[in-house]
Amino acid sequence: GTKPPPCAPSSWCFLGYSIVEQSPSALRLQEGTSSTLRCNFSTNIYSVQWFRQNPGGSLISLFYLASGTKQEGRLKATVDAKERYSTLHISTSQLEDSGTYLCAVRHSAPR
């Protein structure tokens, strides 16, 4: 099959990132429970950014990382560039964690 362009029309493109399919694509959490979102890439990546889109539509950048693990409060993001995936772990979820989580990748260094 033909490879899709770095940003397919069905995906969002912004800041040179392409939004990647993630699993699960939608998630409902009970307060106080934990969950992990996973994002797989088909190509080599330079960096990954995780966002949360609030019900009002505004995007909040949660993490930016090229490899390894970063933690901020109850959120933890990891990137495994060799295995081509990233995870976002939410522990002890609270009401303010609600929203749509997006994973975006940059395939090359910013020019």
UniProtKB/TrEMBL annotation:
BP-aspect Gene Ontology terms: adaptive immune response
Keywords: Adaptive immunity, Cell membrane, Disulfide bond, Glycoprotein, Immunity, Membrane, Signal, T cell receptor
Nucleotidyltransferase recorded as keyword: no
Matching Pfam families: V-set
InterPro entries: Ig-like_dom, Ig-like_dom_sf, Ig-like_fold, Ig_sub2, Ig_V-set, TCR_alpha_variable
Assembly and interaction partners: Alpha-beta TR is a heterodimer composed of an alpha and beta chain; disulfide-linked. The alpha-beta TR is associated with the transmembrane signaling CD3 coreceptor proteins to form the TR-CD3 (TcR or TCR). The assembly of alpha-beta TR heterodimers with CD3 occurs in the endoplasmic reticulum where a single alpha-beta TR heterodimer associates with one CD3D-CD3E heterodimer, one CD3G-CD3E heterodimer and one CD247 homodimer forming a stable octameric structure. CD3D-CD3E and CD3G-CD3E heterodimers preferentially associate with TR alpha and TR beta chains, respectively.
Name listed for the protein in its UniProt record: Ig-like domain-containing protein
Species of origin: Marmota marmota marmota
Lineage: Eukaryota, Metazoa, Chordata, Craniata, Vertebrata
